Amino acid sequence: MTGAEAAALPALDSAGAVYLYHMESGRAVGRKGETDRRAAGASVKLLSGLVACEWLGSRLDETVEITDAMLAGTGGRVFDLAAGEVLSWRELLLLALCGSYNDAYDVIAYSIGNGEQVGVANYVELLNRRAKELGADSTMAGDASGIADNSYTTAADLCLIARAAAENAVYVAFTGLKSGTLSDGRTVRNRNSLIGAKNLGGADCAGMCVGETANAGVTLVALVQKESDSYLLVLMDVRGEDGTASESAANSLAARLVQWAYRNYKNTEILSTDQTVCSLPVTVSDLVDSVEVRPREALWAYLPAGCVVGEDVLLSIRLTVDSLEAPVAEGTVVGFVAAIYDGQVIGRVPLETAGSADRSGFMSRLLSIKNLTKSRRAKASVIFFLVCMTVWIGGALYLRYRRRAKWHQYYSSKSKWR
After folding, report:
1. What is the pLDDT of residue 1?
2. Is 244 helix (H, G, I), strand (E, B) or coil?
3. pTM for the whole thing?
4. CB-based contact 205:195 (threshold 8 Å)
5. Helix 155-166 to helix 44-56 angle, to the nearest 10 degrees?
6. Rounded Cα distance, 173 and 207, in Å
């Protein structure tokens, strides 16, 4: 963390891995062991839920009849679905994404994978293929819900998957529900107790997932929003003071991190559109000799509170020209300016001219003459002219010399006869 931050991160000792990511700026503002490979556990449901929404999002009202084969091997947190029940995909996604029930995930996996045990394997292959597409190269899912102990991932990979899930409206809609109701009246309550929580510093948890398994402990992935700023928070293997897996400890740490982030970071205007960053000389104009250069749009960045432009944030100006030739129109793009914080570019905007410059007729003619003298044809013409003049002058001098010699010879002969 830099000296510009108002306070240090809250203690992260209770979590094996942490990743706190600001969506709009694309910056991680808090991290711990984010690239360490760990047992994925219930965090597999993040990837599984995303893939399910991508496959079923346009088929929510279609129905499926549950069979014994779909429920074979189901364990852990279950809704006790039974063979013979007919549910819509909307209801099954409610059970999976909102309720976090493993039997709902197993029905989805079996159905999308085209049935039988090979169907589940096909679904798991879909999960792993999608993870690789998202750049989550350190992730491997072994089943649909993470109940098995053969899945692994990293906090950074979970953030990549969560970013894609946050862009999926169906996924966010289901995981952000406090509760929902099936067509037969049964209530489904969200497993994630951060939904509707009042201790997030004025922010709201918009969804994602939480769960616990024996091998991975408690994992939590949360999307929190406040006004125009959104965070993704990933916690892995969170334990309480007694050293055991603790969902309440995960919720408590999540609340402290979210409060800290919104208290210590803010959107800061680094450059406004009326600020002059430099000027450029203008040629071929008798009215102005330079024009001011300004940002085409305001440059904002999400920074620690108290950051000072010029000290904590540096500006790097890159111009595409050294000067401008009139006429110059207002708003001509001449380069860009980048803001650099902590050694990284955190934003950039184009630079444009703040004024215009008319072309001078007299200066234009002078420039034309100047340019003419610089052309290869003009240089060749001058050289040819000089050569011709040299030959002409040389010839003239030679003829003059010959005439004088003849006159001298004539007068010399006349004087002899006298």
Report:
1. 43
2. coil
3. 0.79
4. yes
5. 20
6. 8
pLDDT for 361 equals 54
Distance CA 316, CA 347 (A): 11
Alpha-carbon separation of residue 315 from 295, 325, 395 (angstroms): 12, 26, 67
Q: Count of H helices and E strands in the chain?
A: 10, 19
Q: CB-based burial of residue 323 (10 Å sphere; 0-12 exposed, 13-18 middle, 19+ buried)? A: exposed
Q: Name the token pair of 320.
A: 């595409």
Which residues, 6+ apart, have CB-to-CB distance to 109 below 8 Å? 48, 119, 120, 123, 124, 143, 144
- Spell 251-280 as b/e; 16+ CB within 10 A means b: bbbbbbbbbbbbebbeebebbeeeeebeeb
- 131 three-class SS: helix
Phi, psi of 241 (to 5 degrees): -65, -25
CA angle 260, 261, 265 (to 5 degrees): 120
Task: Give residue for tokens 């599984």.
Answer: 48
> Which conformational region is residue 214 in: left (phi greater than 0), alpha (psi within -120 to 50 degrees), or beta?
alpha
DSSP state at residue 9:
P
DSSP 338-366: EEEETTEEEEEEEEEESS-BPPPHHHHHH
How far from chain centre, in Å, is Cα 161? 14
Residues in the chain: 418
- Is residue 149 classed as helix, strand or coil in its secondary structure? coil
pLDDT of residue 73: 84
How far is it, in rounded angstroms, from Cα 396 to Cα 412?
24
By CB atoms closer than 10 A (0-12, 13-18, 19+), residue 319 is middle
Residue 118 above 60 pLDDT? Answer: no
